[in-house]
Amino acid sequence: MFAFILRRLIQAVVVMVAVAFIAFLLFQYVGDPVVFLLGQDASPQQIRELRADLGLDKSFVVQFGHFLVNAAQGEFGLSLRQGAKVSRLIAERFPATLELALIAALLALVIGIPMGVYSALRRGKFLSQVFMTISLLGVSLPTFLIGILLILVFAVTLGWFPSFGRGETVQIGWWSTGLLKAKGWHHIVLPAVTLAIFQLTLVMRLVRAEMLEVLRTDYIKFARARGLSNRAIHFGHALKNTLVPVMTITGLQLGGLIAFAIITETVFQWPGMGLLFIQAVTFADIPVMAAYLCLIALIFVVINLIVDLLYFAVDPRLRVSTAGGH
């Protein structure tokens, strides 16, 4: 187990260094931060002084080393657009994105798993066909279109939910949350559903495919031969083994929800990291773009590490193969 964790940690460090190098290249080849800070009318003397203050007159290797040290401390300098520390901007926006992603992931699991199980056990039934049709629509329709349709129906036509913003929030230290206020829950419904639909259909189809595969295995046939009830076979044996690969996909999809909530946050003007990133791209705010890239990579690495450890703990075949040196 220790060797397994050590290998994963080394891989994680290598990945983060590679991502940090790509983010560092943004500073080198996507515009000049000195020009952004001083403007086009700055004198050569002012430019030289600021480049020296920022360490931009050092060699490439030295600059990258300084960048790695600062990035490890969560420091990416000042936003070229807002003039504030990038770490503070990220800290202000991260809670909104994380809450949105967690609620969307919870909806996808709570709704997608039962739908997938029902579709596998009741193949050919009318409701099963309805679920499959819904999943096809969820996979096919782009996220921005789903968000616009939900706004049109539930915000504009029916007036049940607000169409933008996060609503009331409560400050707990540096963390702001809207989940402790009724208006916060009211505002998060539409964006969470929009973000969850694609993940829900993916979970449903994955559970259905895995469930059908497990039901054809020999140990399920032996369980039927022993006279076990359908309930015990379906939920005590088949579903348990079905959820092992689902756990892996779900963990990685949570990272995807955080990273790719950009469209949803833009449609609903949700004040999260996605909206911050879109604004940074629009204004070529390199420090914010680099910080976002490194943070998303870190989230994926951490989630992947956790999923690997859970998979190692749940699947005894991995422990046996590791012990045998395979």
Fold and architecture overview:
With 326 residues, the protein is mostly helical. It is 76% helix and 2% strand. The protein has 14 helices and 2 strands. A two-stranded antiparallel sheet has the order 1-2. It is globular, with a radius of gyration of 24 Å. The two termini are 14 Å apart.
- Largest sheet, if any? 2 strands, antiparallel
State the share of residues found in helices, binned by percent. over 70%
Q: In percent, how much strand structure appears in the residues?
A: under 5%
Average pLDDT metric: 80
Number of strands: 2
Distance, first to last CA: 14 Å
**Structural class computed from helices and strand pairing:** mainly alpha
Computed CA radius of gyration, to the nearest angstrom:
24 Å
- Uncertain regions spanning at least 5 consecutive residues: 322-326
Specify the number of helices: 14
What is the strand arrangement across the widest sheet?
1-2
Order of helices and strands: HHHHHHHEEHHHHHHH
- Overall 3D form: globular
